[in-house]
Amino acid sequence: MIQDKVKVQLDQLKKQGEKLQAEFGKGLEVAKLEGQRILQELGVDTSAEKIDLQELVEELRKANPTVRDFLRNLDVATYDNRFRLNWNATMISAYAKQQAEKTYAKDIKPKLAEVRETVTTQLREVQAKTQELRAKITA
């Protein structure tokens, strides 16, 4: 019985691992394509399967003779990516805020109202007992 549970959990972990690996692979492929696109915009030929780092630097220097040219071309080449990252960060933060608001409205707010009501009820009881005791003491 315990072995069955462990086996099921291991299978679930394997499936999750495969799913994560597939998603990670997609992300790496997108990053690779974006990197190649940026390098092409900077003047580097990325058609070769393997690019030597020294050749890459030489091609970058040839296509961008000054640092100013390189920075300008780099700014132009990465503009879309920076805009997309900014947009994604904004949307993720908005989504997180929305989820937090939903959680607050669904879980936290009712519990707070319940606690507030309980405290109010107990406080009224204490006040009533205090008034009774005060009346007994003064009588």
Describe the model.
- The chain is mainly α.
- The chain has one domain (2-104).
- It has helices spanning 2-41, 53-63, 67-138.
- The longest helix has 72 residues, at 67-138.
- The radius of gyration is 32 Å and the shape is elongated.
Main beta-sheet annotation: none
User: What is the general shape?
Assistant: elongated
- Strand segment tally: 0
Strand content: under 5%
Which percent bin holds the helix content?
A: over 70%
> Which structural category fits the helices and strands?
mainly alpha
- Termini Cα gap: 72 Å
Uncertain segments of ≥5 residues (pLDDT<50)? none
What is the structure about, briefly put?
It is built from three helices and no strands. The chain is an all-alpha fold.
